[in-house]
Amino acid sequence: MKARILGILRQMTPPDGGPDVVTRSLVSDIFIADGKAFFSLTVPAAAAERFEPFCRQIEAEVVKLDGISKAMVALTAEKTAGAPGARNSAPPPPRQPAPAPARQPGSVKPGIPGIERIIAVASGKGGVGKSTTAVNLALGLAALGLSVGLLDADVYGPSVPRLLGLKDKPKSAGGRTIIPLEAFGLKAMSMGLMVDEDTPMIWRGPMVMSALTQMLREVEWGPLDVLVVDMPPGTGDAQLTMAQQVPLAGAVIVSTPQDLALIDARKGLAMFKKVDVPVLGIVENMSYFVAPDTGKRYDIFGHGGARAEAERLGVPFLGEVPIEMAIRESSDAGRPVVASEPDGPHAAVYRDIAAKVLGGLEDSRPKSDAPRIVFE
Ligand code: ADP
């Protein structure tokens, strides 16, 4: 199928009138899963506007192929202004066809140099505490002695800057890469920090996927043991594409105990299954409430649903986080509870969750240290 797509691309004349995009090595790896094809074109920043309609034309052609129900072509804009090694001044040699090891469909993900493992924190719907969990899980992993990064991929409602109290814009290193910000010992990047005209990246609404790719590949993350990705909530196409594009070692699903949220959480499980990403487990957030004056515990939403659900679905239950003023206040003040009250009970809960996540990662780790470049 990839060869057929490349065949189509070879026959299409780019808007700048130059040779076809395959010959010029502008095409990324082509990812195909579930009848959906995704790839990106890397073009000079100045030409991005002109290439946008071309991407739509490519999609229209590719979707005509038997077996392809949807095609998504994203533009990745290269900054070229005299940067040494910029792609248009020194085109890389055409990609060699690599031998294709036996592999289940769905995961075509070159790893990110310098990042050992990437995990996603996802939820079936918004407002369940996904970002709060992602931040405190990242801090919990750091407290276990790992070097940890946090990537806020929630393009629609990026909250990591608020949760970590980040205000500065990330700086660019030589116009080519971005230096992540640091907070509480984490390296952090957020789509929310990038949406500014002065940014060294081209960033536009329709370019969500290429923005994500840039945040993964053009940020100086490494060396990191774990990068935690705060996914956009929900299980729609955008989330599926992200889950498919990011070379994920595993996913954590955050749910509240309400049944409705659990139904949504099940959709999250199904989504990661589709793209062959192991689900490391479910976190039940806002699980119960302990009255500060009496110490009495109230299971406001009915308690234990997520644990039972996890058991039924055969995924690990990672832990329950109470609904707690201290968690909300510290989050919203940019002082996440694991960092601001490391000796308190909530930090312990998150560290425990982090330890379970880490255990799950070790279990699902490939036995060989060979580069994880895989093909469908
Ligand atoms: P999501 O990423 O799922 O949209 P957030 O992490 O932004 O959710 O959380 C939504 C709101 O709920 C925030 O104000 C946050 O501080 C609060 N919150 C999250 N988890 C808890 C908790 N365990 N206890 C109290 N408040 C919480």
Please, could you describe this protein's structure?
Binds and transfers iron-sulfur (Fe-S) clusters to target apoproteins. Can hydrolyze ATP. Residues 81-109 are annotated as: Disordered. One of its GO terms (biological process) is iron-sulfur cluster assembly. By secondary structure, the chain is of the alpha/beta class. The protein folds into two domains: 2-80, 2-Layer Sandwich (GMP Synthetase, Chain A, domain 3); 115-364, P-loop containing nucleotide triphosphate hydrolases (Rossmann fold, 3-Layer(aba) Sandwich), CATH 3.40.50. It has helices spanning 2-11, 48-62, 130-143, 160-164, 191-194, 208-217, 237-245, 259-274, 305-313, 325-332, 337-340, 345-364, and strands at residues 31-33, 36-44, 70-78, 115-123, 148-152, 171-173, 177-179, 181-183, 186-190, 224-230, 250-255, 279-290, 297-298, 317-323. Strand 8 and strand 9 (186-190) form a beta hairpin. Helix 3 (130-143) packs across helix 12. The relative contact order is 0.14. The chain binds adenosine-5'-diphosphate. Residues 123, 126-132, 159, 233, 285-286, 321, 323-324, 327-328, 331-332 line the site of adenosine-5'-diphosphate.
